[in-house]
Amino acid sequence: MTPQRRERTRFRWYRPAVAAAALAVAVASATLATGPGFAAGAGAARFTGPPAPAPATGVPAPTTAAPTPTTSVPASAAPLPTPTPAADAPAVGAPARATPPAFGAFLDSGPLGVARMAQLSSWLGGTELKVAHTYLPGNRWADIEGAPGFLDVWAHWRRGKADRMLVLNVPMQERNEEGIGDDEVRSLLRQGAAGAFDHHFRALAERLVDLRVPDTVIVLGWEMNGITYTHRCGPDPEAWKTYWRRIVTTMRAVPGQKFRFDFTASRGRDAVPWTQCYPGDDTVDIIGMDSYDQPTGLSFDEQVREPYGLQQHVDFAKAHGKPVSYPEWGLFRNGDNAEYMRRMLAWMDQHKPLYNTLTDYCPHGVWQCSVNPRSAHVYRQALFGRTDSTTPTPATPSPAPTPSASPSPAATPSATPTSSCTSMELGAWIEYWLGGKLCFSLD
Questions:
Q1: What is the pLDDT of residue 101?
Q2: What's the CA gap between 314 and 312, in Å, rounded?
Q3: How many CA atoms lie within 13 A of 3 on its CB side?
Q4: DSSP code of residue 275
Q5: What distance in Å separates the CA atoms of residue 440 and residue 443, rounded to the nearest whole number?
Q6: Alpha helices by DSSP H, 32-110
Q7: Is 132 helix (H, G, I), strand (E, B) or coil?
Q8: Is the pLDDT of residue 313 over 80?
Q9: What is the distance between the alpha carbons of residues 279 and 189, in angstroms, rounded to a whole number?
């Protein structure tokens, strides 16, 4: 597959500073206590919808995206979403299916990513998301060390239940999305292989242990076979592999850690074959693949059969005795492709990855992206009302409204709580960024 630079930048808006820490505390207090499956309105009052997540570079913004706010508000500080469901719920009495692989969705890098999980669960009829997925910013080494205020809310969610999983993408270099040339990347890889950056990863490991999430899944240096990131493998595969091994060895040396390291390439050959970057079984616990519906015109069967594609991924993992994962997957170059959605879900049911997380923003997603209604129907039909039992109890879901061609105007948050709930006083400054007061039912 021709190398494609997929610029799904998630971090230029975010700096873990005072504002983020304050928001994290507010959202953690208001939302995390409810747990997955908590429907908005049953406890916390509903919020207005957020700006639509930014599409990938080169992909036109959908016409149904929420209007851009007149003030410059970072995506991580936007109010909680109330997305319009894009598909009808399954009919009552549908055949019971086996429990799906552990799944989640990437919904936002900051604390709202955690808060939105409860709403996505509600949209799925109470099906519980077992996996939370976020990315450390790669702008500075201080970000990669897990600066205070960024990981706290994610760790709080993970500690809520024993069967939850926190997946954290960790860059191997700072300035990770700045388009640095091959010569400098080669030099940086060799510095890393010599141990120049070990202390940053030791600090991250200590931070995660201190937050009591020592079993975090670390997706280290993801999509290394491409050309997007400074932590790419292509300029010097041998130095890259040595550097990976140093990072894993450094993080595993921290007392109390139980990390699992996920080697995740992008599907296909991309810039270099991902097999050339594999650092060895002793420092890899999971073999992942980021698999989007691309390039244009490529069928799902071709995605399976292509060199370094889906089939080679599962075969390679089996040969090395490792489970597979899909940290990123979703729609892309072929639009609202219900067949891709159906086939990818079936593929994961068949091959049982350790986890998968859908990238849920336009153009990739189905819940926060209203331009993919057919794919949303397939996704929701497959996951609606699932429980940990192999025979889910039939639910009686209310039909979801058909998405309109344009979004309804967001309601203005009321400064006065309703008579059935009690507001949480956070101060005018925090309430401005949240989009209104938080309101709790005491029933």
A1: 80
A2: 6
A3: 16
A4: G
A5: 9
A6: none
A7: strand
A8: yes
A9: 14
Task: Kindly tell me the sign of the dihedral angle through the C-alpha atoms of 192, 194, 199, 202.
Answer: positive
CA angle 32, 38, 39 (to 5 degrees): 125
- What's the Cα-to-Cα distance from 144 to each of 74, 274, 287, 331, rounded to whole Å? 20, 24, 22, 28
Structure-token pair, residue 135: 């990315």
Reading the block at residue 208, the tokens are 């995660």
Query: pLDDT tens, 263-296?
Result: 999 999 999 999 999 999 999 999 999 999 999 9
Q: Which residues contact 222 (CB under 8 A, 6 or more apart)?
A: 169, 229, 264, 265, 288, 290, 327, 328
Query: Residue 8: which of 371, 292, 263 has the closest Cα?
Result: 292
User: Is the pLDDT at 78 greater than 90, yes or no?
Assistant: no
Find the length of the chain.
443
362: pLDDT strictly greater than 50: yes
Token reading at 370: 């209203």
186-195 — which CB contacts under 8 Å span 24+ positions? Answer: 186/235, 186/236, 186/239, 188/230, 189/235, 189/236, 189/239, 189/240, 189/243, 190/236, 190/239, 192/239, 192/243, 192/246, 192/247, 193/239, 193/240, 193/242, 193/243, 193/246, 195/246
**Helix residue spans in 15-87 (DSSP H):** 18-30
Please state at what angle helix 198-210 crosses helix 237-252, rounded to 10 degrees. 40
Question: Would you report the helix, strand and coil content of the chain in percent, each value rounded to 5?
Answer: 30, 10, 55
To the question of pTM greater than 0.85 for the whole model, the response is: no
